[in-house]
TrEMBL record:
It comes from Saccharothrix tamanrassetensis. Gene3D superfamilies: 3.40.50.450. It holds the Pfam family DNA_processg_A. GO terms for biological process: DNA-mediated transformation. InterPro entries: DrpA_SLOG. This is Putative Rossmann fold nucleotide-binding protein DprA/Smf involved in DNA uptake. Residues 11-63 form the Smf/DprA SLOG domain.
């Protein structure tokens, strides 16, 4: 699994609100975006559709310290 290569390869870290064996699903993306907004230094959105999760991530980023760019 890709997550195993990241965690054991010495090249990164895995941050998740879910069990490591959990597979991605549509309902998990908002949770992931919230986590990324909380730990990121900033948020950059180049282009986003009207129902894009990127817009939700920017709203969360505005509530946290990192300013959207």
């Amino acid at each position: 699994m890709f997550i195993d290569r990241i965690a054991t390869g010495g090249h990164g870290a895995v941050a998740s609100q879910f069990w490591l064996a959990a597979s991605g699903a549509t309902w998990t993306f908002p949770h992931r975006n919230i986590t990324m907004s909380g730990i990121a230094q900033g948020t950059v959105v180049i282009e986003a559709g009207s129902t894009s999760g990127a817009k939700m991530q920017v709203r969360v980023a505005l509530a946290w310290r990192p300013p959207p760019m």
